[in-house]
Amino acid sequence: MAGEQQANAFVTRSQGAQTSVNSSNASLSLASATNSLRSATITDNINTKKLHVCIDVVTAFSSAADTPVYLEGSIDGSSWVTVATLSTDFVPSTLGPRFFTVDLTDVSSIPYFAIHFNATGKGIGTSGACTFHHYFT
Questions:
Q1: Average pLDDT, integer, range 48-70
Q2: What share of the chain is helix, strand, coil (3-state, %, to 5)?
Q3: Are the beta carbons of 130 and 58 closer than 8 angstroms?
Q4: Count of H helices and E strands in the chain?
Q5: Global confidence as pTM
Q6: Residue 15's CB: how many other CB atoms inside 10 A?
Q7: Is the pLDDT of residue 83 over 90?
Q8: Between the CA of residue 29 and those of 56, 75, 100, 107, what are the distances in Å?
């Protein structure tokens, strides 16, 4: 399985008076049906916080196979390990947003995070596209 190049950089958008949501700029698709897609690197200090994630499927992928979604962490920004499983049964053929929350209150000293979609390389097709969003509390 080949991993796709990281998604577009996150941009900050205000949602109401108190919340900043970091969103990928454009919808992202896969070049190969079994590739995975990793978000841009999250460099905000989310250690010891709760991270709220949204993956919005804006164009349906061709397969209804359950697809895993992970939160990954890295010490150097290039070697990634799974910090938390956000979903084991994400259905990429269904349009719309999916929301996840991960409690990182026991996590410290990880400078980089990323959201990894289809990390196990299931054949989900190349016709779909999604956007990544996150904020922390």
A1: 90
A2: 0, 50, 50
A3: yes
A4: 0, 9
A5: 0.83
A6: 11
A7: yes
A8: 12, 27, 21, 31
- CA dist 34 to 6, 105, 121, Å? 16, 33, 5
Backbone angle region of 109, left / alpha / beta, with phi > 0 → left and psi within -120 to 50 → alpha: left
Cα 115 to Cα 132: distance, rounded to the nearest angstrom: 8
Tokens describing residue 41: 């690197």
- For residue 2, pLDDT beyond 50: no
pLDDT over 60 (residue 18): no
67-74 and 37-38 beta bridge pairing: unpaired
Kind and range of the H or E run holding 86: strand 81-90
